[in-house]
Specification:
single chain, alpha/beta, Glutaredoxin, 5-stranded mixed sheet, globular
């Protein structure tokens, strides 16, 4: 059983190098050379809650750009599923594949959950 241990304000973000929806390797260190990075985790592409979240971030791109901030979404989905999500919802930011959830674990957002009587490991939307 994995228990979550989320990062706190001021903690350094763990380094990552992951494939995006186009199969390109995206690294946090390269992104940070040019701008701030808003990293968000979501459980599964194209699900209702994850879609609303992604669409809201898509729609706020110009406001985030004024703050010199780039959005990067990370999920345990495979690259092909990410590409379908990006295309279907006309997303304008990178979606990164963390299939082994190593980065989610490093950020402290992957762990044991209970939902509707089921017990499993997954992305925690809100630190508990």
């Amino acid at each position: 059983m994995n228990l979550i241990n989320p990062l706190n304000a001021g903690d350094d973000a763990p380094a990552f190098s992951l494939q995006n929806q186009d199969g390109e390797i995206i690294t946090l260190s390269e992104l940070l050379k040019e701008q701030q990075v808003l990293v968000y985790f979501y459980p599964k592409a194209s699900t209702p809650g994850c879609t609303v979240q992604a669409e809201n971030l898509r729609d706020e791109k110009s406001e985030l750009a004024k703050l010199n901030t780039r959005v990067v979404g990370i999920s345990p989905d495979p690259v092909k599923r990410l590409k379908n999500f990006e295309t279907k919802k006309e997303l304008n930011f990178d979606l990164l594949s963390d299939e082994d959830h190593a980065i989610a674990e490093a950020f402290g957002v992957w762990g044991y959950k209970k939902f509707m009587g089921k017990e499993y490991d997954g992305i925690h939307l809100y630190p508990h």
